User: Which sequence fits this backbone?
């Protein structure tokens, strides 16, 4: 077991988080006095002074920076300008909605894309192959907000089958789910296809076939496990794109999640909320990437055992 | 001599065998680019002129009259004129943004490759950071704090995707440094600036061009997405994304207000990615067919 591999990855993740938090800190300071920008306009001068003392805004920069970290660890990120509540409380309400939509979307994409990609790789230049490739090109060029609008026009306006906004019943999730999954199905299946193609050309597959194994056990017992490693990576590293996508999709379908909250907060310059969401999303992405790296290490024994680990 | 050879392979690559789908895509792109360049001459009326007597006029293909070929919006503004203006805005912004990205990324890559050591480490950590941090989130943070203006918006778009150029340029420069020609001009006493600009860059430009054609459609999608959620191009200026955002309020009846700009975005990004992929397959020596 190579501990260096995990430590390197862990250190990288920590550095990235450090950079994210610092980036937010810097942006906040260079735009002026946070007591002016982050607090609501109707705050009294006493409250502002209190805020300055709490965040040590009158102290030297390095003290402020340390204090900023300390406050983050205590989960205190200020109050929302619009509804005067603690940001952490608002996040706790909105977050489950986003997690619900995103995790279903990843699940659906993986369930559809991987068999599609494998099928396409095994049946090159057939209908299924072209289908998976066209989905990929389509998903890449189709802006998700346009796809969302087309789906609303078809299913909500024309057929009157599904609601176009909100999140009250299970029917509400169908359109946002399809919209957010199409692009990922495309990219995952294209990637699965190319990975499977290169794995199927490897000598060990030829050896496995030569030993008289059935085609199915060659594919599912030997080829797919080897292809799984890069596929896991691509799914994990697409978390960032999924989060970016959810910002737009939640706006199209008025889905009451974090993404939509971010957009409205940016619009009304509700800084405390923006800061909290940005930090939260970035840290989730870094964690997801770290998880992929660690999983990668478990899936591929060569990485675990390699000396030095890179 | 070397430059001559390069151009020949470039042209050969370009005119080898062009599949029909690529030809159609190129034709569409030429059409869109001409529209953008001659937008002033092509607009039937000013894109800001309101005509309250002709509000929500249907487009000609839906039985409207010929004054508003693509209909008008709730303020009586001509959709066709707004569409042409939006094509100009979206394309120009995406183009300037892509150039900034390519230049910035390439320079960072070259600097990392030239200085190596600690400079390289720092720059590559930044690259990793950018890979981990979605552009959209960074953009929203900056827009929230600085407010929106067009210069900031373009600069911001210029950041999207820079890390891919940086990584590519660094890798290419590192291997080029070992090549005979770079070593030779260095020993002749050329300054590093001259070596990178006059000798290494021309040799890696194919890869940079390919990356540019792949980055460009992404830029259009990012710009239109931000404008769609109301944080990009602000009225009275108009972009394809803000037109769609406006049209979204009229889906129940006047669906074309959102669908027409949507189709233009889709066809343009589709054509660009098809052409981009095709160019990559024909230009990029690292792609094994």
Assistant:
């Amino acid at each position: 077991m190579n501990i260096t591999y995990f430590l390197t990855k862990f250190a990288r993740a920590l550095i990235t988080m450090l950079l994210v938090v610092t980036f937010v800190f810097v942006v906040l300071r260079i735009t002026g006095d946070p007591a002016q920008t982050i607090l609501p306009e109707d705050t009294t001068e006493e409250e502002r002074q209190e805020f300055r003392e709490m965040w040590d805004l009158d102290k030297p920069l390095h003290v402020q920076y340390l204090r900023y970290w300390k406050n983050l660890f205590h989960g205190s990120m200020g109050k929302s300008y619009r509804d005067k509540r603690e940001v952490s409380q608002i996040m706790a309400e909105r977050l489950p909605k986003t997690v619900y939509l995103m995790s279903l979307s990843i699940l659906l994409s993986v369930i559809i894309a991987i068999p599609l990609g494998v099928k396409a790789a095994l049946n090159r230049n057939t209908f299924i192959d072209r289908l998976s490739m066209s989905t990929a090109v389509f998903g890449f060029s189709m802006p998700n907000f346009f796809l969302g609008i087309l789906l609303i026009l078809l299913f909500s306006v024309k057929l009157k089958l599904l609601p176009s906004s909100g999140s009250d019943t299970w029917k509400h999730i169908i359109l946002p789910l399809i919209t957010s999954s199409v692009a990922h199905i495309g990219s995952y299946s294209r990637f699965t296809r190319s990975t499977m193609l290169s794995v199927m050309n490897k000598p060990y597959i030829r050896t496995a076939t030569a030993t008289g194994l059935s085609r199915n056990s060659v594919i599912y017992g030997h080829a797919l496990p080897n292809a799984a490693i890069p596929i896991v990576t691509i799914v994990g590293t697409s978390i960032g794109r999924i989060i970016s996508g959810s910002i737009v999709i939640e706006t199209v379908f008025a889905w009451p999640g974090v993404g939509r909250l971010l957009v409205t907060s940016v619009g009304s310059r509700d800084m405390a909320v923006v800061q909290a969401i940005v930090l939260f999303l970035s840290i989730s992405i870094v964690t997801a990437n770290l998880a992929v790296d660690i999983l990668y290490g478990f899936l591929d024994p060569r990485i675990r055992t390699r000396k030095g680990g890179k | 001599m070397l430059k001559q050879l390069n151009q020949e392979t470039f042209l050969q690559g370009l005119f080898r065998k062009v599949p029909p789908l690529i030809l159609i895509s190129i034709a569409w792109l030429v059409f869109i680019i001409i529209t953008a360049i001659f937008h002033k001459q092509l607009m039937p009326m000013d894109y800001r002129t309101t005509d309250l007597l002709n509000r929500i006029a249907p487009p000609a293909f839906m039985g409207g009259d010929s004054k508003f070929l693509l209909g008008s919006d709730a303020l009586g503004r001509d959709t066709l004129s707004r569409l042409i203006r939006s094509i100009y805005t979206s394309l120009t912004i995406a183009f300037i943004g892509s150039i900034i990205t390519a230049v910035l990324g390439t320079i960072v890559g070259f600097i990392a490759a030239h200085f190596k050591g600690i400079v390289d480490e720092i720059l590559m950590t930044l690259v990793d950071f950018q890979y981990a941090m979605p552009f959209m989130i960074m953009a929203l943070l900056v827009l929230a704090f600085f407010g929106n203006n067009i210069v900031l918006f373009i600069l911001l778009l210029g950041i999207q995707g820079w890390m891919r150029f940086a990584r590519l340029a660094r890798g290419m420069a590192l291997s080029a440094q070992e090549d005979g020609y770079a070593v030779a001009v260095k020993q002749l006493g050329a300054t590093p600036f001259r070596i990178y600009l006059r000798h290494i860059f021309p040799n890696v430009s194919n890869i940079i061009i390919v990356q540019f054609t792949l980055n460009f459609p992404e830029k259009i999608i990012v710009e239109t997405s931000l404008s769609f959620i109301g944080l990009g191009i602000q009225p009275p200026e108009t972009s394809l994304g803000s037109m769609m955002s406006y049209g979204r309020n009229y889906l129940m009846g006047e669906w074309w207000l959102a669908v027409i700009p949507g189709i233009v975005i889709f066809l343009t990004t589709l054509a660009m990615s098809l052409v981009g992929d095709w160019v990559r397959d024909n230009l990029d020596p690292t792609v094994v067919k």
Summary: The first helix of chain B runs from residue 2 to 15. The CA atoms of residues 244 and 258 of chain B lie 4 Å apart. Chain B touches chain A through 45 residues (CB under 8 Å). The mean pLDDT of chain B is 83.
